[in-house]
Amino acid sequence: MNIAEEIKKLKKERKAVILAHNYCPAEVQDIADFTGDSLELARKATEVDAEVIVFCGVLFMAETAKILNPSRKVLIPDISAGCPMADMISAEEVRALKASNPGAKAVCYVNSTAEVKAECDICVTSGNAEKVMATFSPDERIIFVPDRNLGGHVSAALAREYILWQGFCPVHEALSPEMIAQARSQHPSAKVLVHPECPKAVREAADAALSTGGMCAYARENDVPEVVVGTETGILHRLQKENPRKKFFCLSEGAVCHDMKKNTLEKVCEALREMRYEVTVPEDIASKAARAIEAMLAVK
Ligand code: 13P
Ligand code: SF4
Predict the structure, then answer these.
(1) Residue 37 Cα, ligand 1 centroid: separation in angstroms?
(2) Which of 23, 143, 174, 240 could cross-link 234 (Cys pair, CB 3.0–4.6 Å)?
């Protein structure tokens, strides 16, 4: 039996479902029951009726699935798969920010720890940030953590000032407008899509800034022969699979999230065999974080 067959067999025995983020290695995306962006995965986690969720992604995503589904067992194939940006702010730092900005609403990007979410009024993902932030009235003061780039992107789109934390994603921060200029000279008819986690100059040089799910929808819905994507390279697999007649290129081969790549087939198989690593969130934190996540999911 090969490893993919063994995973299928164990999945049935354990009554498990496998959810994978768009940045996971291609072979993990291929054995997953559902592949998506953070928002799609959070929604999916509220719909599954399996007893076990194997979450192939990074810890904050698996925590979100657990918070939304407390009665299910949530496993992550590698417990060290974290998100450096999520770790750029602590709950204590959010409390200090709120204390120095009394009355301000606190918004966190879903790329944050459960403890940080528990301190915030509402969450956003890159797929719904503009829609969620548009629900605030113009006179409200808003703290946005931890991503200065997504915060800056929404601030420009909605013409609003936010109190921004200076966190960033090291993978997207390394992309540059020079890379876009070079990609455009190599692929003159291509559209350039970048993730809102990219710096301002990169977002401004691109044709659109979209979540990974937004990039998949764009490729599906637009008659474009070539697309250059400024985000983690794992997305290319899904784009190419769903659009075999179109060509996709990455803005930088170096745009690799090593935490996402910790989700290997071997570790998915081990997770199911050994029922590890179980993701847990303390009840008091989970109930407060759930309010912020559910407030986000209620925005249609
Ligand atoms: P998406 O929600 O767009 O998939 O982004 C998640 C992420 O971690 C981007 O770096
Ligand atoms: Fe975090 Fe960046 Fe990896 Fe996304 S790509 S999980 S933001 S480190």
Answers:
(1) 6
(2) 23
